[in-house]
Amino acid sequence: MLCGFKSNLMKSTFKYLYFLSFILLITACSSDDSTEIDEEKPTITVNYTTGFPQGCAFLTRGETYNFRAMVTDNSQLAAYSIDIHHNFDHHTHDDQVRDCNLGALQQAENPLIFVENYTIAGSKTSYEINIPVTIPNDIDTGDYHCAYSVTDATGWQSRTSIDIKIVE
Amino acid sequence: MFQKILVIGLLCSLCTTVFAQDFFQIKGIVQHAKDLTPAQGATILGKNLYAVSSASGAFTINNVIEGTYSFTVSHIGCEPTTFSVIVGQNMKEVKVFLIEATTVLDEVKVNGKTRKREALEVPIVSQTVSKEFLDQNRENTLMQTLSKVAGVSTINIGSGQSKPVIRGLGFNRVAVVQNGIKHEAQQWGNDHGLEIDQHGIENIQIIKGPASLLYGSDAIAGVVDIQPNQTPLPNSFGGEVNIIGESNNDLLGVSAGVTSRKDKWFYRSRLTYRDYGDYKVPADRINYENYVFKLDDNNLRNTAGNEANASLGIGYVTEGFKSETVFSNVNAKNGFFANAHGLEVRTSSIDYDSANRDVDLPYHKVNHFKITNNTSISAGEHVLHLDLGYQNNNREEHSEPVPHGYMPTPPNTKERLFVKNTYSLNFRDSFNLTDQHNMVVGLNTEYQNNNIGGWGFLIPEYNRFTAGVFAYDQFKVNSNFYVLAGLRYDVGRIDTKAYYDWYPSTVHNADGSISYIHQQRSKNKTFDFGSLSASLGLSYIQDKTSYKLNVGRSFRMPLANELASDGVNYHMYRYERGNLDVDPEISYQLDLSVEHTENHFSIGVSPFVNIFQNYIYLNPTSNYYETIQIYEYTQAEVFRIGGELNTRATITENLQLDASIEYVYSAQTSGPKKGFTLPFSPPLSGLLSARYQFEKLLFFDKPQLIADYRITAAQEEIVPPEEKTDGYQVLNMSLLSEIEVFKNNLPLKMRVKLNNVFNTKYFNHTSFYRLIDVPEAGRNISLSLTIPF
User: Fold this and answer.
1) ipTM associated with this complex
2) Do A86 and B403 touch (CB under 8 A)?
3) Measured between beta carbons, which residues in chain B are less than 8 angstroms from residue A154?
4) N or C: fewer beta carbons within 10 Å in chain A?
5) Where is the signal peptide, in residue numbers (chain A) (predicted)?
6) Kind plus residue range of the DSSP H or E element containing A15
7) Contact B603 A79 (CB under 8 A)
């Protein structure tokens, strides 16, 4: 292409040809679609009947809860994570519809830290996360966050974050 | 411009003969200001009056009627000089001192050729940006100003920080060179901006292609070469004060510079201060993923900042020798958008909206201290250049301490501290082998010492030494055909230092036990690299058309973060993992440039094709580390093609139209993201400019109205985690004028600029805040006044 481009230069009407060649160069190269690429992010939601936790949910110490969320992807789900951490300093907020009433600011002494990653085997396009988590008896009560995230095989990620409270 | 301020020598000594009544004779002498030798053959031209100076420099103009006359004196190689004389009784002899048109050293180099002609002869495809361009187009940062050049764009971090992107590549792939020394800071960082005072720059050369041959590693995608300022002329003093105010971010800036030279010693100094508030976007809320951030009065909260810069240059120039040492310090502090920094959404009890000019957490501050020395010696056939540099970059990022994963709440706000010292020494010798061959041989060496602090870990401490030797030959085949061929070899060593977390993490061992350990993030390790660069270029000038062709191989040495990072980048909400096995990047590029110039029309195209054998890319994987997505440095083959088109038409004497288009297509052709583009790929974009020169209006001299209409296509080519960006159209207008305040004094220069005339809400694909769906700045009126003295 560049060689053809150069031979044009010698002609008298070259200035128009420059322009044409340049446009050609652009269009020829931008219409390259030899490889199919995945441009879709996976989705993640707890907004269904058995999704857990719902925004502003109360969790009781000593109880075991099944954390459930639906994830989907156009081609292939790969991995997900669950992160439960305290929000005693109100450092962040959730992306759910409701605004929860946060408790007073407090110092963390022995907060619950739940930081786990899981893979989704097989080429699934939809999957329900279902992980039982026992809330220990000795952890600090108060405002917490539950953050889910999911990736697909391409490396796209989606996240959701839910305000919860852990109570006695 | 200070040269223009220069003395128009007009002193009187002797009496002239008085003729009877009406007719008088003007007598005078023309001399070279430098050594007071007579200037023979100078033309002295006035209205209907004309003379040529004799071998002794003397001239006479007879039969002149009483009155005031002004004359222009021209001589080859000298600045045209004007003088006025009152013709009448008791006239004195006029003495005119001519000043050489070029500075002493440029004379050696330019050899009577114009800069433009010289640029045509060098096969390297480059673009020169003048002080005039910078003054007329000045934006908030140097790189924002330069982004008007086709093929150059920026990654902006708010209104006060930006970094260069050339043909879609940035970070450490573009070398920024100032006074011959490569600017070394934390260029790899997403929220790092270039620490260079944009005032007081006279000349920038932009190379839009690989230039490792001349500049070493990091110049793989291009160079922004801020060249040393011109040596002031003997016995000169000049300066300017620039005052600027802007409406969008309530910016107030002042920059003042002076330049002076006695005979051999010269100095220049500049002080710049800028202070700005939060900038405004044409939106009352930011929607990022499922979050909604309401904005107070369209203010992007906590994006205020300030900048204070100082520089002092001291130089000595004599026959065949010139040396200048420049001390400069750039100090800046900038807030980051409070609701989300990078990808991390934050809430805070800080009352950000109480004031628009304060800088709260999160913010960064940086101090860049630099000493450069440029020395040139001409010794017979040889011209030797020596550049020495020392730079100290001190950058801190502060944010509210927040626990993450196993990390408890940190004790203070200092998240990251980088202290980097860079020592540079460059040497080159340029000499003529024969009349046709000009050889340049040289050596570049650089030592970096990078120290870290703060509670966040991203890159390890390291020491890095690089050295390269090069030689190239500029072969003049004939006066219209030039060849440049060169080779270079570089070696480099990086020593990374070990780092352990300051807090313990919970680790589940294979045997079911749990331990609490301070994780090791980096190791003591030595990496050695070597790489070859080569370049072959042709330039051919055929009448009004010039052709350039350049093929080159360039390289870039891996950085410490690419090799050894191992930690959570909270701002980007990702875990970044280095790769000990990355090789130096190798890039091959073919550049072509054709320019055709007619009297009222010019057109230029500069297409390129580029292949990276092993582009180092931070690849988002599907895996997690403690619930944070892992991004891993990998290498992929990359194919890029694109170019720029520039046209200019002079429609009438007063109306000039410019149009330019820039485009880059890039694709990864191997690796985990095969088929995807590269991050921060600029979309197809065009700029239409119209410039109208008005007649003198009241006290406005040379008023010009400029309209810049930017049309940018959508960017559909993305790579995780980017979002597609819609196209946009933005109109900027500016009015430039000179104002004659006092006769005989230099005119004031005024500029009123209206950016984003229609307050269009649009997104810039290559902006740092694009990731969190923050639109570009809204309408802005800026008023700038430059007072020369």
Assistant:
1) 0.80
2) yes
3) 622, 673, 720
4) C
5) 1-31
6) helix A14-30
7) no
